[in-house]
Amino acid sequence: MSRVTILSIVASAALLLYILEMVRRRKLREEYSILWLFGSVVILVLSLKKNWLDSLAHALGIVYPPSFLFLIAIFFILLILIHFSIAISKLHQMNKKMTQEIALMKEKERREG
Question: Mean pLDDT for the chain?
Answer without folding.
Answer: 93
